[in-house]
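Dear colleague,

Following up on yesterday's call, I've attached the two folding results inline so they're easy to grep. Please treat them as preliminary; we haven't cross-checked anything against experimental data yet. The first protein's sequence and structure tokens come first.
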Amino acid sequence: MDKKRGNGRGRSSLMRRAKRGMRGYPVATIAYYGPDDQFASKVAVGIVAREGDDVIALERWYSEDVDIRQDPDVTQAILEFIEQYDVKSVLATDGILGCPHEEGIDYPLGESCPECPFWADHVYEDRGQAAGEDVQIVAGCAWFDEEGWERLREVTADPERLEDDYETWVAMVEKSIRDMRDQGVELEKVLLDVDELVAWCEEQDRPVDASARADLAAEKLRERHEGS
């Protein structure tokens, strides 16, 4: 049976949310997989409730004859799934991250998937490059030096969201970066100045909290990339 593209109805809403970038937690990560870099036959959607947490929910959808990125029923199912968790950030890409089969489950560890020979010749790197195309999802991650972090604890509206000491917080963020990379998302550290953060929140008439930190980091990351 010929593989079809589908009509993509409803997908624009999902991608609009993805284009907003990192807007705070909970986060939904959307990763597409397929037998090659042109046709997506699987999508995996994970939910991360808080910075440093493991994935709390994971759903997968499959398609054999229609590119799943263009399947309106799957898109609607994804939207309904992420709404259950009051998701604030959707991190997704149209690119295909790799083979839809799972090493150690669908085929032996250390071997190439026998059903997807394309990927044996197009190994994708940790940064999400497939077939020469960068399909990495990049998002900003608010970062503070030790002095800034201590100052943050004094002014933040949600001190309970911060760890008891700087070293523990650093370890938590580093773990979050590793875990998100496993989901196909590269979190790029954005060093924030707390006084600038406070002034920015005053201009926005919003509390200094995790959502504000994520939004300012996303804004600065966009500026960084636009200026590069």
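Below is the second protein, in the same order (sequence, then structure):
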Amino acid sequence: MSSYPASVPSPSRARVLADLVPGASTATVVREVALVAGGAVLTGIAAQIAIPLPGTPVPLTLQTFAVLVVGAALGWRRGLLALALYAVVGLVGVPWFAEGKSGWAFASMGYVLGFVFAAALVGWLAERGADRRPLTTAMIMVLGSVVIYVCGVSVLMPALDVDLLTALELGVVPFLVTDAIKVVLAAGVLPLAWRLAGESDRERRSRRLRSSADEL
């Protein structure tokens, strides 16, 4: 018999880390809303850790790391909704984009839009087990980063009236090293979380078996 209640799948049955969050079946909607809102809030907080870089309107932030981790941890549906919520709330005036920005009239808005697609892609791949090993986790993080870059540069070009090469120099090149560090960090954190969840599951099962043996 599983040591998990029916509302909490064991790590072997969970598709993403968020599936391991406890919650009674009667509170499923509340739990899902909390996960989506939590993903948006985490991204908004990470966006406030921003370092302006000389020569580019795009700041260095932790929000790209948050976006990719949120997507992997929540799955594609929750991840898409979380980052769409983050974008919409910022668009209507809440100043939680990078550097306290809100609205849509700024050059790095394309990156915000890219977050939605990147979270969905990373979440879709994570649901298929790609976030359980360091190498595949790194690969999906790179793919997510590429999506963010493509969307960001696509808006950066008309916003600044520059060509593709200049947009790449402003919106991609300055972030390659730090984004590589974020990829390495995620490749360590996510598989470790799955490993710890598995060890916790085995420990619970062991305790359950010992308890059953004592009752006999």
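For the second protein, one point worth flagging: The domain at 17-193 is CATH 1.10.1760.20 (Arp2/3 complex 21 kDa subunit ARPC3).

Best wishes,
A.L.
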